[in-house]
Structures are given as C-alpha cells and as structure tokens.
Amino acid sequence: MKELIIFDLDGTLLNTIADLAQSVNYALNRLGFPTHDEASYNFMVGNGINKLFERALPEGEKTAENIVRVRELFLPFYAEHKMDKSRPYPGIPELLDTLQKQGKQIAIASNKYQAGTEALIAHYFPEIKFVAVFGQREGISPKPDPTIVHDILRIAGTPKEKVLYVGDSGVDMQTALNSGITSCGVTWGFRPRAELEDFNPNHIVNTAEEILALV
C-alpha cells in the first residue's frame, strides 16, 4: 500500500503544452528567431525552462546569452498566459480528490520553475492539500536528480517503499529510479509510451483511474 504519491505536473496532471509553446514562440519571434509548431514542444520540455529555451533556439544560437534573452521575454508573457489553454487531463481532479479522501499524502515534483508550479497548482487544484509543491528551485539540480524527491520524503516522513512516483516522461522514470521509489508512467502526456518503456518503470497506466489500483 502506498501512502505518498508524488506527481510530475506538466504532461501528467496538466496539459500545458499549448501555453508553453505560444510563450516560447512569442519570445523567439521578438528576438527574430524562427518559431516551432506546438507538437514540437512535446520533445523540448521536461528538463526545466533553460533547457527548453536551448532546444528551441536554432543551431548556432544556443548560447547562454540567448537563453537569458529568451527567458526575460518568456517569463512575463507566460505569467499572463499560462492558463489560457492549460487544463487538467481527464480524471485527474477526481483522482486527486479521491486520494485525499483516502488519507493519502500528495506532492508535486516538477521541473517547471517554482513560481509557475505554485501558481498552476493553486489555480487548478485549490481544494487539494499537497504535502509539498516543488518546482525547479535556485541551486537545486533538476530532475532526474533525486534531490527534489528526497526533499519531499523528508517533509512527508514516508518510507520509500510506501511511495509512488507518477510521471509522463523518461526523465520522470529516471527520477524515480534514482530515488529508489516505485515508478508509474502515464501514457496521456507529452512523450510516447516507448520512452517510458526504455526505463523499465514498475507500472504504466492509460487512465487516471488505474492509479488508484496501484495505491
């Protein structure tokens, strides 16, 4: 039986790709760089926004200076538009509500920057009492580094064998592996099932309801 369920955010709880795509494209366009179609961003996200910007920039322009320039334009635009089209995936609000009513602890471990993570969680899941909501924090290595999970475990006080980590990407499966906890890949997110399978997760589910059976 699992007592703590740690969720990734983008691609797992929320479909945020349209708002991310339009915000990065806005910054790229302002700087005179080519933009990308929305589907391309499925394979750019997952490792934090600086890596997202690096991937979005054209070859020969992936410099630290350009990443900073994109970031400076992206952040205020995304702050205003991060909820334009982002929505919870089917069954997610009900899943979180059920887990909470069952007395489970629920936490967020995201590579989205901290302020963005907190804002989205507060907006879309105001009734859920998360034990921890962690995005990418200054001075903390992003996933798949296990620090974010270790920090959640310390707060929750839950032994590793009673923890389930749920995510949609290879980064998430590797994070669970690096943390020594049970992994569950979801197939409705940004990355294909084959990427999840490359990391041999403990479970792969196709619907939110299936997660209840695992806990």
User: What is the helical fraction, as a range of percent?
Assistant: 40-55%
Annotated CATH homologous superfamily of the largest domain: HAD superfamily/HAD-like
β-strand percent reads 15-25%
- Rounded mean pLDDT is 97
| Sheet with the most strands: spatial strand order | 5-4-1-6-7-8
General description of the model:
The protein has nine helices and eight strands. The chain is α/β, with parallel strands linked by helices and 215 residues long. The chain has two domains: 4-15 and 87-214, Rossmann fold; 17-81, DNA polymerase, domain 1, CATH 1.10.150. Helix 1 crosses helix 3 (64-81) and helix 2 crosses helix 3 (64-81). The radius of gyration is 17 Å and the shape is globular.
Topology:
Layout: E1 4-7, E2 14-15, H1 17-30, H2 49-56, H3 64-81, E3 87-88, H4 92-101, E4 105-113, H5 114-124, E5 132-136, H6 147-156, E6 163-167, H7 170-179, E7 182-186, H8 193-197, E8 203-205, H9 209-214
Parallel strand pairs: 1-4, 1-6, 4-5, 6-7, 7-8
Antiparallel strand pairs: 2-3
Give a quick precis of the structure.
The protein is α/β, with parallel strands linked by helices and 215 residues long. It has 2 domains: 4-15 and 87-214, HAD superfamily/HAD-like (Rossmann fold), CATH 3.40.50; 17-81, Putative phosphatase, domain 2 (DNA polymerase, domain 1, Orthogonal Bundle), CATH 1.10.150.240. Helices cover 43% and strands 16% of the residues.
What keyword list fits this structure?
single chain, 215 residues, alpha/beta, Rossmann fold, DNA polymerase, domain 1, 2 domains, six-stranded parallel sheet, two-stranded antiparallel sheet, 9 helices, globular
